Amino acid sequence: MQRFPSIVVRAFWTMLPAYVPNNAAVLAGGGRPIDGGRTRDGTRLLGDGKTWRGATVGTAYGVALALVLNALGRPIGAATGVSLPRFGRAALTLPLGAIAGDIAASLYKRRSGRERGAPVVGLDQLDFVFGALSLTACVAPGWFRRVFRAPVLVVVLVLTPLLHVGSNLLAYLTGLKNEPY
Ligand code: CTP
Ligand code: MG
Questions:
Q1: What integer pLDDT is reported at residue 2 of this predicted model?
Q2: How many domains does the chain have?
């Protein structure tokens, strides 16, 4: 049995490359929207909240962070006794999947008539997790099964919404985001 604190550290470490992209996108966002302004039935496909710059810069930050974590994993793992995963293909699939999950959620939100920025409790907190996990499971299934064992998955699904709410509140209070969610 792994101890609970080490499972939490492992879950957080593993998901960091998926946590950073959408926050980096908030900082980097602006410019050309991904949907190019296209509409269907009079409604934007994604809206001005999903931009190429946000998506590419966000993904790049996530990949860079995964590489930094790869360099730090061995010494920190040795010092703490927590076994930390190395990111291979997941260094790309976690950030890219997180960005794609957020974009897919915007597509759904616009189709269901929700304005840009409208909150959807649950979806807003977990869209990027589902994106990151499913893309990683497809591209690196062996790595996925080894790293995301049931206890780690459960911690990810509980911890992520809490972190998401906290970081968005911070972005709202500091004026980076228009809504606190
Ligand atoms: N952002 C971006 N590109 C992305 C994701 C986010 O430029 N791929 C930036 C946008 O400036 C966006 C902000 O980050 O307004 C906040 O992101 P998010 O909450 O995901 O977008 P919303 O504006 O709330 O739009 P939506 O309703 O589609 O989620
Ligand atoms: Mg939003």
A1: 67
A2: 1
Q: Is residue 181 part of a domain?
A: no
Q: Which of 26, 168, 181 to mutate to test the pocket of ligand 1 (most atoms within 8 A of CB)?
A: 26
Residue 180 lies in a domain: no
> pLDDT per residue over 19-54, tens digit each?
999 999 999 989 999 999 999 999 999 999 999 999
Euclidean distance between CA atoms 74 and 112, whole angstroms: 46
Cβ of 47 below 6 Å from ligand 1 = yes
Residue 144 within a domain: yes
Question: Of the bound ligands, which one is closest to the alpha carbon of residue 23?
Answer: 1
Residues 68-121 pLDDT 10s? 999 999 999 999 999 999 999 999 999 999 999 999 999 999 999 999 999 999
The Å distance, Cα 167 to ligand 1 centre, comes to 14
| Cα–ligand 2 centroid distance for 118 (angstroms) | 6
Question: What ligand has the least distance to the C-alpha of 118?
Answer: 1
Q: Note down the domain range covering 74.
A: 4-173
Q: How far is the CA of 30 from the centre of ligand 1 (A)?
A: 9
